[in-house]
Amino acid sequence: MEIIDRPSPNFGSRKGxxxxxxxxxxxxxxxxxxxxxxxxxxxETEVSSHYLIAKDGTLYRLVDEKHRAWHxxxxxxxxxxxxxxxxxxxxxxxxxxxxxxxxxMTTLEALLAEVLERHHLPAKAVIxxxxxxxxxxxxxxxxxxxxxxxxxxxxxxxxxxxxGEFLRDAAHFGYPVDAGEGPVLExxxxxxxxxxxxxxxxxxxxxxxxxxxxxxxxxxERTARRTPTRPLHES
Length: 235
What we know:
Strand order of the largest sheet: 1-5-4-7-3-8
CATH architecture: 3-Layer(aba) Sandwich
CATH superfamily: Peptidoglycan recognition protein-like
Strand content: 5-15%
Number of domains: 1
Largest sheet: 6 strands, mixed
Distance between the termini: 26 Å
Mean pLDDT: 92
Number of helices: 8
Shape: globular
Helix content: 25-40%
CATH topology: Lysozyme-like
Low-confidence stretches: 220-235
Number of strands: 8
């Protein structure tokens, strides 16, 4: 897989001894990959990601994986904040109003397969920006095909379970439920029930219960993944 290096000055050291245990997907919300690259490489913006994939499938590396890119901002997953220190960020060239190109998705699949294998991560490690910051972010949005990734073992898709308690199950899966039911429901639907509307439903509760039972956040495992490695704005 060909990678074009486009180094960004916007990075630092991973804090707290974290190794990589998450991969966070974003959309750029910009008109072109080149415009996104300029922003992600501008020291005044103080934002970056490890990788950016253009609509034509071109893959850019902006920050080395050993460093802490500035892509996630405020938020949390599985009870831990400072997601930047424990994650890789991948920006996808998309404005959030349409589907993602086939060339982009093909490159993303190849990159995710490599990264998951290199860091010995399960498919549940791949999350969206909205998942870890549901009160303020919505990327990669309802047009992103999470089910396609799951079919290839590059993300997860639950089987609905017996109806549970929505926020309790959301916390068990990993969502930061302090954001409240509304933002968590919106983030969950964008990923697992795109374009669903209305109040919390039995279908929402059943699918979230399935996530909690089949893919629970394992805090012990995450803590064990801490390894010695060598503020904050977000895209």
